[in-house]
Amino acid sequence: MNTKPPAGPLVVGLTGSIGMGKSTVAAMLREEGVPVFDADAAVHALQGPGGALLAEIEARFPGSTGPAGVDRAVLGARVFEDPAALADLEGIVHPAVARAQRDFLDTHTDAPFVVLDIPLLFEKGGAALVDRVVVVSAPETVQRERVLARPGMNQEKFSDILALQTPDREKRQRADHVIDTGVPLAETRRAIAALVDTLRDLSSARERTI
Ligand SMILES: CC(C)(COP(=O)(O)OP(=O)(O)OC[C@H]1O[C@@H](n2cnc3c(N)ncnc32)[C@H](O)[C@@H]1O)[C@@H](O)C(=O)NCCC(=O)NCCS
Ligand SMILES: Nc1ncnc2c1ncn2[C@@H]1O[C@H](COP(=O)(O)OP(=O)(O)OP(=O)(O)O)[C@@H](O)[C@H]1O
User: Per UniProt, where does ATP bind (predicted)?
Assistant: First the structure.
């Protein structure tokens, strides 16, 4: 008889390069009832009005915060082309995000699986800490078109950010599952429904072997 305690949810990392459709796919997973931790939303909360990191960020990057929180355009311009400055910002932000992620895992112990939506899963070593990795991807031309259509974006900023990220080709190679977003939304939604079924099956197969 199996007397060991349950292993807890299967932990799935969701990632993808800039503009690949990660937020859209995360929203689809939530619609399927999956608990999703959103690292980017945690950053926004910590940097938004009254955010816990504002004083520390202002001390290191004077003039980058105000009553509305971090001015993301100002801070982005300071860090995306200056690796040392970006490392300082990450040193302030990432430990707080890691704490928020632990709180999320502690409050979702009963789900068959949970998803951690982490833009820098490969870049910061998080891939080794999850059970499965899902990469959201689209052809380069689609990615470029989406990103350059965003307000405040230009070719130089796009190139700076791309240079900081693990190439899409490598992400796809290292993924357990790849979700294509260079197709109509309805097709991606169907792929997400199938992925949810697969992850549920994996989770219950894992429970049976405990
Ligand atoms: C500098 C900030 C304020 C700029 O905000 P802005 O709204 O202009 O950009 P946004 O956050 O949407 O990022 C744009 C693109 O850059 C990528 N990006 C953001 N931070 C990083 C980073 N440290 N390394 C590589 N890519 C990054 C994002 O994944 C996204 O693809 C913000 O990106 C930030 O605080 N970054 C540091 C925290 C971080 O590492 N966040 C991402 C992982 S949780
Ligand atoms: N099949 C699809 N799947 C996902 N997104 C799609 C699809 N077709 C079109 N889109 C559009 O592409 C855009 C993807 O943007 P989204 O914000 O999800 O990307 P992201 O990877 O989270 O970006 P970033 O890393 O820069 O924050 C959205 O406007 C979405 O509506």
Answer: 19-24
Task: Tell whether the model's pLDDT for residue 1 goes beyond 50.
Answer: no
pLDDT over threshold 70, residue 210: no
Q: Are 137 and 16 in contact (CB under 8 A)?
A: yes
Q: At what angle do helices 39-47 and 83-107 cross, to 10 degrees?
A: 110
Q: For the chain, what is the mean pLDDT?
A: 94
Q: Which residues line ligand 1 (CB under 6 A)?
A: 18, 39-40, 43, 70, 72, 75-76, 79, 86, 89-90, 93, 97, 119-120, 161, 164-165
Q: How many CB atoms sit inside 10 A of residue 55's CB?
A: 9
Give dist(CA 116, CA 176) in Å, integer: 15
CATH class of 9-32+114-201: alpha beta
The model's pLDDT over 57-104, given as tens digits with 9 standing for 90+, comes to: 999 999 999 999 999 999 999 999 999 999 999 999 999 999 999 999
Residue 2 to residue 210: CA distance in whole angstroms? 7
For residue 177, the cross-strand partners are 134
Q: What's the one-letter identity of residue 171?
A: K
